[in-house]
Specification:
The protein is of the alpha/beta class. The chain folds into three domains: 2-130 and 300-315, NAD(P)-binding Rossmann-like Domain (Rossmann fold, 3-Layer(aba) Sandwich), CATH 3.40.50.720; 135-295, Dihydrodipicolinate Reductase, domain 2 (2-Layer Sandwich); 340-409, 2-Layer Sandwich (Alpha-Beta Plaits), CATH 3.30.70.120. It is 36% helix and 24% strand. Strands 7, 8, 9, 10, 11, 12, 13, 14, 15 and 16 form a ten-stranded mixed β-sheet that branches. A hairpin with a 5-residue loop joins β9 (239-249) and β10. α5 (100-116) runs parallel beside α10 (195-209). It is elongated. The two termini are 46 Å apart. The mean pLDDT is 96. The chain binds L-homoserine (HSE). The site of L-homoserine (HSE) has 11 residues, from α7.
Length: 412
């Protein structure tokens, strides 16, 4: 029998305990032995629960228990999650986690500690909730050079954007609904301002390209500035707007990594991914594009990935050699502004005579319209150019054109 512990009895932690009870027999048969939750760490009391006797407020009860060999860290945040994880790994216990903030910030260090103590640090649940993506990437796609990873990595913002696009639900109402459904982070600013998606693309790109990509090196924009005209102009160009986290290998060896809302044509494999669902596209030089799709947040989908990692460890024993990457000095990320892209731009044109100047400066643009478009409001899609070139051209237009919004267009 394998005895495990759970750090944190929030949304994910309670889901982990529930799955071990609900699917006890199938988990035992897949693991080859029974797995039982011996201890749960939480500062709160849960006297009403049938397993109330398993709770402790003292981390040492878990750290110093020689019977506990695997621990799920589902408390979130950097501290004390980092110190607890490090201590557990050093004590010879494997740790699994859904804590993307910790893996993105300290993954290289914790993987090194796990390796030094011949135990595992697994984090399938940290990206894509219940979608298997970490393991397929380092095992099933191991024969590929991965050239690019891109995805809808945050369920809360995808839920909000879907509600805004399909039922014109106001932003705040859609966010409240996502919180009620247990999708949002404790501080939902991490969702709507892009930090959560940033952490996830850091994890995916570190694994795909082998050196740690730190969140502070990744250009990150959220969805709070998006407006109804953005949505309407996007629709006029047969596009949706999705918050995309992306990373790709640049020719010189650096990594392009960024998070921002982007236009995707309706035929894109990621465009129809709605509500809380996540979609992750991995481009391999042997497979071409592989897309993973499923519930990216929520109690049982995330708990499913946590428990699967625990089952895997109880079967495997020693350290996984493929789930690892090296540390970096942060200089492994290149300049996202150099990438040639098309941009949807809208704003106010001083007068209609300025239209010819706009076309002269911008080149061959595609003009867009929306219902009730105010006079002077002008929207267009540029030809491909770098962000530096776009800024220069907008500067040349100066007061002739007052920019209200610029959204990048991606081609997945
Ligand atoms: N807040 C996250 C999301 C939870 O909405 O995707 C899953 O990581």
């Amino acid at each position: 029998m394998v005895k495990v512990a759970v750090l944190g009895h929030g949304t994910v932690g309670s889901g982990v305990v529930e799955l071990f009870t609900k699917n006890k027999e199938s988990i035992a048969s897949r693991a080859g032995q029974e797995i039982t939750v011996k201890r749960i760490l939480d500062l709160r009391e849960f006297p009403e629960l049938p397993y109330a006797g398993k709770f402790t407020k003292n981390f040492d009860d878990i750290l110093n228990d020689p019977e506990i060999s695997i621990v799920a860290e589902v408390m979130g945040g950097l501290h004390p999650a980092f110190e607890y994880t490090k201590a557990l790994l050093e004590a010879g216990k494997s740790v699994v986690t859904s804590n993307k903030e910790l893996v993105a910030a300290r993954g290289a260090a914790l993987l090194a500690v796990a390796k030094a103590h011949n135990v595992n640090y697994f984090f399938e649940a940290s990206v894509g909730g219940g979608i298997p993506v970490i393991r397929p990437m380092h095992q099933c796609l191991a024969a590929n050079e991965i050239t690019e990873v891109a995805g809808i990595l945050n369920g809360t913002t995808n839920y909000i954007l879907t509600r805004m696009f399909h039922d014109s639900t106001p932003f705040d109402e859609a966010l409240r609904e996502a919180q009620r459904l247990g999708y949002a982070e404790r501080n939902p600013a991490a969702d709507v301002e892009g930090a959560d998606a940033c952490r996830k693309i850091c994890i995916l790109s570190s694994l795909a390209f082998g050196s740690h990509v730190y969140p502070e090196t990744v250009h990150t924009e959220g969805i709070t500035h998006l407006t109804l005209p953005d949505v309407e102009y996007a629709a006029n160009w047969d596009c949706v707007i999705k918050l995309i986290g992306r990373a790709k290998k640049l020719p010189g060896g650096k990594i392009l990594a960024a998070v921002y809302p982007a236009l995707l044509k309706h035929h894109s494999q990621l465009a129809s991914i709605d509500d809380v669902f996540n979609g992750i596209l991995i481009r391999g030089n042997a497979t071409g594009d592989v897309v993973f799709y499923g519930r990216g947040a929520g109690k049982l989908p995330t708990a499913s990935a946590v428990v699967a990692d625990m089952i895997d460890i109880s079967k495997a024993g020693c350290t996984s050699k493929s789930l690892t990457w090296c540390d970096s000095d942060g200089k492994n990320v290149g300049d996202y502004k150099e990438e040639p892209l098309r941009f949807m731009v809208w704003g106010t044109l001083l007068d209609t005579r300025a239209l010819a100047t706009l076309q002269d400066v911008m080149g061959s643009v595609t003009f867009l319209s929306r219902p009730g478009q105010p006079e002077g409001e002008t929207a267009f899609v540029t030809p491909e150019m770098s962000e530096y070139a776009l800024s220069e051209k907008l500067e040349v237009l100066g007061n002739l054109f007052k920019v209200r919004s610029v959204i990048r267009a991606l081609d997945y």
